[in-house]
Structures are given as C-alpha cells and as structure tokens.
Amino acid sequence: MVLLEEFERAGCHVEFLDQPLGDTPHEHLLLQIRGAVAEYERTLIGERMRRGRLARYRAELLLPWVQPVYGYLLDPAHPRDPAGVRINEAQAAVVRQLFAWYLEDGASLSRIVNKLFEHGVTSPTGKPRWRHTTVRFLLHNPAYTGTLYACRSRARRSLRRRSALQSVGKRHDGSTAPRPREEWVTAGSIPALITQEQYVLGTFWY
After folding, report:
1. Which of 85, 101, 103, 153 is deepest in the core (most CB within 10 A)?
2. What is the b/e burial string over 193-204, where b = at least 16 CB atoms within 10 angstroms of the residue's CB?
3. Does residue 143 sit in the same domain as residue 83?
C-alpha cells in the first residue's frame, strides 16, 4: 500500500492485470486484505526455511558457510556438505602460525600483521597486507578446533532510514550482532587445525 500511495502522489496509474481494481472503498479494502495475506504467506515461507536449515544443521548435513573459511577447502561437487571439508595445507600453516605468534610470543594484532607482511604472506583476499579485523576474526573462529557452529550471529535491524518507503528498523542493513554462546547450534565436525586450549587462549584478549 505504501508503494501505491507513492505512485499515486507521483501521478502514476497502477493497473492489476490479473484482477483489475476500481477506486471504491470496497475494492481498496480487498487490496489491503490481499497485501496482508501475501505478507503473512511470505513470513510463513521464511519461517519454514529457517526451521529446515536448523534441522539440517543439527543433522550435520549442511555447512554453515557459503564460502570456505581460510585454511579449508570445500568439495566442488557438494560445497555445503560438512563431510567434504578438507584442509588447505598452505593456509592451515598460516593459521597455526598466527596462534603460535600470539600464544608463544605474546604478539599484538599489529605485530602479527607486521610479521605476516615481513614474511610475504598475502591476505585471504590476495592483498600484501592483512587487516587487523581479519586476524582477529581468525583468532575467534571456533571452526579451527574442529567443531562447526551455526547461528553464531543474528541480523541487526537498521537504525536509520535508507529509503522514504521504509520505516526505521523495518529491514536489516547487512550488519550482524553476536549471539550468546548457548544459542549456537552444533553443525558437525571438520579436521581441526588447533586445540581447544589454543582457541580459548587466543580469544582471551581479542
């Protein structure tokens, strides 16, 4: 209805080909009912899809990644199958070295970034210098312990209006917020790159 009102104010005439509507109060009511039913059906479809994903996560049939995490390779034929995940040895060596520098040498994020640059190790995106946020993300990724977790974050609702047709908080702006650990869903196992103790120590300060 918001779009129709905007079109009307702009002088545009909207026609429905499947079921033409007039300009009477009764027909306006029918249009609003159809819009409400369509929104309800979309919500139901989204909820069914969410439950289906959760069931597949818990059954260890669906990988909670769309792209491979640094240090791993996916099965090209079944990229969302946890059983097809294998180690990328070159990248895995970098991951282990990151934890070694941090845990053994007590290096800060800045020092680790400098060490990577000095050793000529390119970032996951192929750039000569790593970002601090990338190093922090690797140190905080529990997948390196061999356990997959899904639902570690939730979409954050927009805090500002991005369009005159959207209300504040109506849609997500692409950012996420972390979920409490008890809400994480275990989604399977993959080859581990570090121990659980190394992971806990690696996330202690960062």
Report:
1. 85
2. bbeeebbeebee
3. yes
- For residue 198, being part of any structural domain is answered with yes
Question: What CA–CA distance (Å, rounded) separates 70 from 27?
Answer: 56
What are residue 155's DSSP bridge partners? 176
pLDDT at 183: 92
Asked if 101 and 181 sit in the same domain, the reply is yes
Residue 128 has φ and ψ, to the nearest 5°, of -70, -20
Using CB atoms within 10 A of its CB, is residue 95 exposed (0-12), middle (13-18) or buried (19+)?
Answer: buried
Report the domain count for the chain.
2
- Which residues span the domain enclosing 97? 65-156+173-205
Distance CA 130, CA 153 (A): 24
* pLDDT value of residue 140: 92
Shared domain for 52 and 85, answered yes or no, is no
pLDDT above 80 for 159 = no
